């Protein structure tokens, strides 16, 4: 999750093999060579040295999260890494697991993921979108058990919890008031992707966690913050501990455990604690999940943003793939089971937005075809390559478009002109919840409820499955000819109600229950007066040059695991020295190839 949602891209990394692109790859346009596909799916990298086992630099490096160490010295899951028997391909069982793990559901029931439902609400949705913005008191909360406000930050010097924007603080009590009269809890989420971007706060988490004194300052401030505004818990969104390209330090792994242990001891009886997890093993390997598990109420797994335009810089290339493809997710969750985490403590991530591309060839418009750039921006989100679910539904409503259900991927695709968008709606989210229940997940989390809203219901959607807010966008399962909407404009009229802004802000704003995120519409009409607003959306299909971002599709690898003194490093980027010293074995990382993916949440 990031302070600017649409800039977040989780580093894609799949372990094991998959053939989810096989059929599409046979198309004349967008064909994917077999070796390229296997490397894109993270089976190995032939130009990198061994990183685990007897051939690793130390001769004894183990694989994080207890995944398998292959005979060649690579960490991963699946038959390429975990096979035993033949000496040429045998797994190195002293440096990780050698079992083939596949969790299925017999013991947890058919609806384990239906019980806990968490929705994130982005504070920037109140004012940053150009249209369709909503306020906390217009959020639809039907079906939610928790609502997380994203994000607050931490002062880089005092380690006090603080607002990322002074305007956000005005909304805290408005947000927590939602939970006072309803059967759900309001929590604050701290951090996000942008918090560890290069800048003043890039090393705040590492410094905060590096020693007892700093951790105590943070926990004391956090407890005061939660009590002051009425939050019932805190979600720690550190993206990502340990990862050098995210300003992490190898000592973060164990320091994070120490932070959670001390948080649990100080506030765990009164407040909830959760931690956001990446789906990608590249980042997940820095989390000591078994040690963390006893100190948190639950984890949130970000099973979205698996693909995007950043793929152009890696082995995957300019190939259309869905950012919530369940076939890929199935491989990505395996390290959780190798680590021994209780799936009942994990919330499965759901996305209320789609990612899209501008096609290289409009006649090839399916998963596996090639693309030349991001899709056109939405009218409210104003970000190329992304459309909120509300924007997608409006597009379908006011055109002749018919989405297609991709059964294997459990997602939908929408094609028009030279555009392709992959997304989830009520139909596919219901499928994903059932799938998550089969793997015994304990709940779901939504990023983010402000990206879908319904003027009929008066607020953002909360729980998409089994509730009236989120609608099916229609299903076409048979292969169809490309349907092009007319280029031009269409308008939708939305009844909106003027509501007072918090004291200290200027004027009043039209809160558009049918929108998603954007700047307030100023109006001088009396508060409470209903207005009719016409939003005009222009549909065009311009040629867009491919844009490139730093990216990397990498294997999870480790170098030797040295013993370091936590909190007493002497390198310029190390956490500030603290009183006392604790020694932990940690895993250092080494990049293989490519560049680093920016992230989104």
TrEMBL record:
Chain residue ranges for the region called Disordered: 498-529, 564-601
One Pfam family from the record: Glyco_hydro_18
Biased composition (Polar residues): 498-511
Record-level Gene Ontology MF annotations: chitin binding; endochitinase activity
Family per record: Belongs to the glycosyl hydrolase 18 family. Chitinase class V subfamily.
Disulfide bonds: 63-75, 68-82
Cited Gene3D superfamilies: 3.10.50.10, Endochitinase-like, Glycosidases
Domain GH18 residue range list: 115-463
Chain ranges of the Chitin-binding type-1 domain: 49-100
Name of protein: chitinase
Enzyme Commission number(s) of this protein: 3.2.1.14
PANTHER family hit by this protein: CHITINASE, V CHITINASE, PUTATIVE (AFU_ORTHOLOGUE AFUA_6G13720)-RELATED
GO BP, sorted A to Z: carbohydrate metabolic process
Keywords from the named record: Chitin-binding, Disulfide bond, Virulence
Coiled coil: none
Top-level taxon in the UniProt lineage: Eukaryota
């Amino acid at each position: 999750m990031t302070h600017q949602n649409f800039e977040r891209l989780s580093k894609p990394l799949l372990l094991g093999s998959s053939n989810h692109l096989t059929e599409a790859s046979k198309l004349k346009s967008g064909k994917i060579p077999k070796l390229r596909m296997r490397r894109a799916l993270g089976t190995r990298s032939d130009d990198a040295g061994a990183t685990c086992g007897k051939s690793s630099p130390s001769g004894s490096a183990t694989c994080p999260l207890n995944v398998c160490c292959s005979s060649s010295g690579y960490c991963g899951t699946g038959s390429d890494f975990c096979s035993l028997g033949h000496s040429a391909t045998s797994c190195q069982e002293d440096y990780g697991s050698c079992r083939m793990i596949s969790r299925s559901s017999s013991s947890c029931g058919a609806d384990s993921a239906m019980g806990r439902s968490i929705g994130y609400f982005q504070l920037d949705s109140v004012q940053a979108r150009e249209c369709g913005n909503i306020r906390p008191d217009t959020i639809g909360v039907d079906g939610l058990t928790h609502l997380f406000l994203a994000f607050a930050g931490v002062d880089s010097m005092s380690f006090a919890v603080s607002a990322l924007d002074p305007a956000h603080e005005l909304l805290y009590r408005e947000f927590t008031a939602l939970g006072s009269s309803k059967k759900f809890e309001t929590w604050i989420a701290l951090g996000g992707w942008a918090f560890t971007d290069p800048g003043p706060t890039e090393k705040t988490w590492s410094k905060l966690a590096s020693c007892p004194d700093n951790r105590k300052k943070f926990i004391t401030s956090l407890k005061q913050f939660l009590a002051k505004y009425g939050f019932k818990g805190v979600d720690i969104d550190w993206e990502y501990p340990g990862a050098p390209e995210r300003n992490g330090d190898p000592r973060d792994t164990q320091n994070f455990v120490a932070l959670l242990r001390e948080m649990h001891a100080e506030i765990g009886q009164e407040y909830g604690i959760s931690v956001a997890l990446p789906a990608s093993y590249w980042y997940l390997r820095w989390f000591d999940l078994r040690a963390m598990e006893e100190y948190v109420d639950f984890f949130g797994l970000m099973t979205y943003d698996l693909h995007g335009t950043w793929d152009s810089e890696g082995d995957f290339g300019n190939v259309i793939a869905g950012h919530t493809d369940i076939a890929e997710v199935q491989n990505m969750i395996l390290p959780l089971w190798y680590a021994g985490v209780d799936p009942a403590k994990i919330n499965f991530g759901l996305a209320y937005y789609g990612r899209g591309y501008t096609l290289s060839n409009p006649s090839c418009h399916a998963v596996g075809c090639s693309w030349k750039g991001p899709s056109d921006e939405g009218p409210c989100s104003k970000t190329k390559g992304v459309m909120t679910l509300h924007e997608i539904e409006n597009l379908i409503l006011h055109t002749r478009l018919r989405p297609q259900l991709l059964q294997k991927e459990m997602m939908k695709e929408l094609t028009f002109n030279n555009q392709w968008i992959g997304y989830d709606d009520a139909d596919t989210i219901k499928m994903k919840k059932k799938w998550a229940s089969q793997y015994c997940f304990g709940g779901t989390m939504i990023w983010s409820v402000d990206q879908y809203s319904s003027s009929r219901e008066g607020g953002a959607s909360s729980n998409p499955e089994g509730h009236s807010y989120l609608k099916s966008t229609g299903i076409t399962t048979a292969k169809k000819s490309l349907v092009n909407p007319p280029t031009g404009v269409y308008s939708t009229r939305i009844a909106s109600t003027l509501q007072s802004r918090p004291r200290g802000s200027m004027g009043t704003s039209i809160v558009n229950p049918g929108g998603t995120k954007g700047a307030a519409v100023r109006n001088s009409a009396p508060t409470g007066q209903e207005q009719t607003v016409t939003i005009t959306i222009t549909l065009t299909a311009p040629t867009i040059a491919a844009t490139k971002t730093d990216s990397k599709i990498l294997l999870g690898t480790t170098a030797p695991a040295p013993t370091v003194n936590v909190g007493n490093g002497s390198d310029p980027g190390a956490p500030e020295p603290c009183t006392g010293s604790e020694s932990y074995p940690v895993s250092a990382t080494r990049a293989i190839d490519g560049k680093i993916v920016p992230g989104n949440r």
